[in-house]
């Protein structure tokens, strides 16, 4: 009998060993699962922390959109930002700007010659009628350009430039012909600011602006304050200042910008100062009340005109009077703008 028991015991031992082995494997699997769970939780915490950091960084990110009608000074403002931040123009860029300046002068003079003819203005000198047939080479026609610019007929046409389309940089370049005409001429920073490169799109492309509005912190809206007596190049009828007001109204009342600060840049103050001496703003804006020769009265009227376009009068409208070709003016104004944007952005962060 005892032999049978011993035999049975020997038969049961492998089963017990199997149970112990299975239990050990189960414990190992549980440990592995717990370890993986801890690792997954650790990685999840790291991802959550990273996402939180990114959200804070995005909230602090200041994304500015620069808008405005054609010829309002947007490109000049961007060039000023580059100059103010110490980014030099390389040799290729300088040579490109030189060619642009030559092109600005030649095209500007052709516009003046054509305008003189259409306005029925006579030549001061019959010789200048021949000079008016300007080919494309710049250096070869310096004398012709100088003679044309000095002609009383061309000067009279220039004085009536509100009646046709002429780049505002033309006078600056023609006044500096002696320097620009030198064989070794390299554009100065001021020359670059006045250089005008044609930009594509403008009026026909404005509906596409709204594709750029995601995540905007602030909008800088530029207006040419001196264009109250000029019309659009596109249709020759619409007043340029009225066009700017219409665009501004579309922007300022858009529901996408409920929490976006909008800063109005009433640009080209230098040209406005000159214009109010000779052109009465009441001719185009009969609702103006004040002294049409007083800069402060005209500027106050412009601010009020744009401010009235807002449906939400409780939201502040920040504004600055600027001269985009004046580096120190833009430097000062942009420092003020940065303070405004940062303060408004901080308010939004505190509310989130």
Automatic annotation (TrEMBL):
Gene3D superfamilies per the UniProt record, alphabetical: GI Alpha 1, domain 2-like, P-loop containing nucleotide triphosphate hydrolases
Subcellular location: Cytoplasm; Membrane
Membrane topology recorded in Swiss-Prot or TrEMBL: Lipid-anchor
Alphabetical UniProt keywords: Cytoplasm, GTP-binding, Lipoprotein, Magnesium, Membrane, Metal-binding, Nucleotide-binding, Palmitate, Phosphoprotein, Transducer
Region (Disordered): 1-41
Chain residues that bind GTP: 71-76, 193-199, 267-270, 324
Stored InterPro entries: Gprotein_alpha_12/13 (IPR000469), Gprotein_alpha_su (IPR001019), GproteinA_insert (IPR011025), P-loop_NTPase (IPR027417)
CDD domains, A to Z: G-alpha
Biased composition, class Basic and acidic residues, residue ranges: 17-41
Gene Ontology biological process: adenylate cyclase-modulating G protein-coupled receptor signaling pathway; Rho protein signal transduction
The organism's place on the tree of life at top rank: Eukaryota
Membership in a protein family: Belongs to the G-alpha family. G(12) subfamily.
Protein name in the entry: Guanine nucleotide binding protein (G protein) alpha 12a
């Amino acid at each position: 009998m005892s032999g049978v028991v011993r035999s049975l015991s020997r038969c049961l031992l492998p089963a017990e060993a199997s149970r112990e082995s299975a239990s050990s494997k189960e414990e190992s699997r549980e440990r592995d699962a717990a370890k993986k769970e801890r690792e997954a939780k650790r990685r999840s915490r790291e991802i959550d922390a990273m996402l939180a950091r990114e959200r804070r960084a995005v909230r602090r990110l200041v994304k500015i959109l620069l808008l405005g009608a054609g010829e309002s000074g947007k490109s000049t403002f961007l060039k000023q930002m580059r100059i103010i931040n110490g980014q030099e123009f390389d040799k290729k860029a300088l040579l490109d700007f030189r060619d642009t300046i030559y092109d600005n002068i030649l095209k500007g003079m052709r516009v003046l010659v054509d305008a003189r003819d259409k306005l029925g203005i006579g030549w001061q000198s019959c010789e200048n009628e021949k000079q008016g047939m300007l080919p494309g080479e710049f250096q070869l026609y310096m004398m012709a350009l100088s003679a044309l610019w000095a002609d009383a007929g061309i000067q009279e046409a220039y004085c009536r430039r509100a009646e046709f389309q002429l780049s505002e940089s033309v006078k600056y370049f023609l006044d500096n012909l002696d320097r620009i005409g030198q064989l070794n001429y390299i554009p100065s920073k001021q020359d670059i600011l006045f250089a005008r490169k044609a930009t594509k799109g403008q009026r026909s492309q404005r509906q596409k602006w709204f594709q750029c509005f995601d995540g905007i912190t602030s909008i800088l809206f530029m207006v040419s304050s001196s264009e109250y007596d000029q019309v659009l190049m596109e249709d020759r009828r619409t007043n340029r200042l009225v066009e700017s007001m219409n665009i501004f109204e579309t922007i300022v009342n858009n529901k996408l910008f409920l929490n976006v600060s909008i800063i109005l840049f009433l640009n080209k103050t230098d040209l406005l100062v000159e214009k109010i001496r000779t052109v009465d703003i009441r001719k185009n804006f009969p609702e103006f009340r004040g002294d049409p020769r007083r800069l402060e009265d005209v500027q106050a009227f412009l601010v009020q005109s744009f401010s009235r376009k807002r449906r939400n009068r409780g939201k502040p409208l920040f504004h600055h009077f600027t001269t985009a070709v004046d580096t120190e003016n833009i430097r000062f104004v942009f420092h003020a703008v940065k303070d405004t944007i940062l303060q408004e952005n901080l308010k939004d962060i505190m509310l989130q």
